[in-house]
Amino acid sequence: MTRNKPANKARANSTQKPTRIQREKTGAILEAALEVFSRHGFRGATLDMIAQKARLSKPNLLYYFASKEALHAELISGLMVKWLEPLEKISAEGDPVAEITGYIVRKLELAEEFPRESRLFANEIIQEAPRGKDTLNGHLKALMDKKVVLIQDWIDDGKIAPVDPYHLIFSIWATTQHYSDFDTQIKAMMNEGYEDRFSTAKTYLINLFTKGLRL
Amino acid sequence: MTRNKPANKARANSTQKPTRIQREKTGAILEAALEVFSRHGFRGATLDMIAQKARLSKPNLLYYFASKEALHAELISGLMVKWLEPLEKISAEGDPVAEITGYIVRKLELAEEFPRESRLFANEIIQEAPRGKDTLNGHLKALMDKKVVLIQDWIDDGKIAPVDPYHLIFSIWATTQHYSDFDTQIKAMMNEGYEDRFSTAKTYLINLFTKGLRL
DNA sequence: GTCTATACATTGATAGAC
DNA sequence: GTCTATCAATGTATAGAC
Where are chain B's structural domains? Predict the structure, then answer.
């Protein structure tokens, strides 16, 4: 009896669904892949580095993921929900300024807790996202459109200052993700202040955007 | 008589200094290298791609630059001055808010005119700058320290709102460079507005930071 | 399921003819 | 100065034993 070569994921002996050991292995691989891809980008990363970090052989890694591309795609799509969540949560119900500052805080927390995920996406975008393009921008664009309308409504209702919704969102992305994507530089620039960078950044950014949104 | 293998640059037949043709070739190579390195990062870039874009053979390219590393180093150091210039120009003499908005405008113009240069540095930093680290951060850090003191002086003199100078500079870097580094995403998110993105961003950012700095 | 061995392509760099 | 040929190293992926 021959064994099926799975498309994206390994399958158990014959009929079972993913076993505990498989989850552990794929988990270790994805963790290692995140580490390596987020630092070196797709082309710069090698399966050797990933396999070594995940503590298995390269062929064994390729038993769980059909190819380098497949592994990368799995990473991206697996992180998509977490990545979009902060923007998703902006609600039409709450106070506009509070909603937007809440968004800033969530984005900043994400940058602090998941810097590798942030760099993974940053690498993709800088390098023109030859892969994640559709996945990333498709989902994101739909969400973006909705939130732009919401912000424009707030402006039209005179609830916040008349700012360009696109640039508002871009500037929030830029300022928050900067602390994960360019952490190397932040570290090189700040001295003692580095340890508290997220705390002080939070204060600074909330103040900046609050002033910018008040009428 | 043997020919010397130059360290970083090619040397003419025997005694001359760089000729016109050499300048043209090295120029074409650096231009191509900027294109490729800025998109793929150091590891992701290949000499093949660069040679092809520069319209010469790989060995010929390596006649002008000793190695991939040397070529990359030459690029980085050659762009350093241009890259630091906007920050350099912040003057203690002018009006504080005008000086800072002037800085924002200069940075944004740089992002518009030289997006590849911006991405080149962005790639280096995201990937922990195993190379440019000393060069980039050395020069930048010295400049940063001076400007942080200047901004702090303005605050102490009650000329601008008491904001953290580090985060002020970081947020200016982030918001301006975002338009070059993540242009792919900007393009995917904006519709008709994309063409005017730098003009509308300028208005938006000046407004944002002006409000943030006014007492 | 996992490993060793290996096939096959890419890549950085050099040798040597012209 | 430039090209063809070529290397050694690296890198993705597969074959097949266990």
Answer: 10-66, 76-213
Which residues of chain B from 17 to 56 reach within 8 Å of chain A, CB to CB?
A: 39-44
Contact, B57 CB vs strand C, < 7 Å: no
CB A105 within 8 A of CB A198: no
The pTM for the full model equals 0.93
pLDDT digits (tens, 9 = 90+) for B146-181: 999 999 999 999 999 999 999 999 999 999 999 999
| CB–CB contact B41 A44 (8 Å) | yes
CA atoms of B10 and B33, how far apart (whole Å)? 17
pLDDT tens per residue, range A108-140: 999 999 999 999 999 999 998 778 677 877 889
CATH level 3 topology of B76-213: Tetracycline Repressor; domain 2 (1.10.357)
Contact residues on chain B for A182, CB-CB shorter than 8 A: 122, 125-126, 173-174
Contacts of A163 in chain B (CB under 8 A): 204, 207-208
Q: Decide: residue A106, CB within 10 A, 0-12 exposed, 13-18 middle, 19+ buried.
A: middle
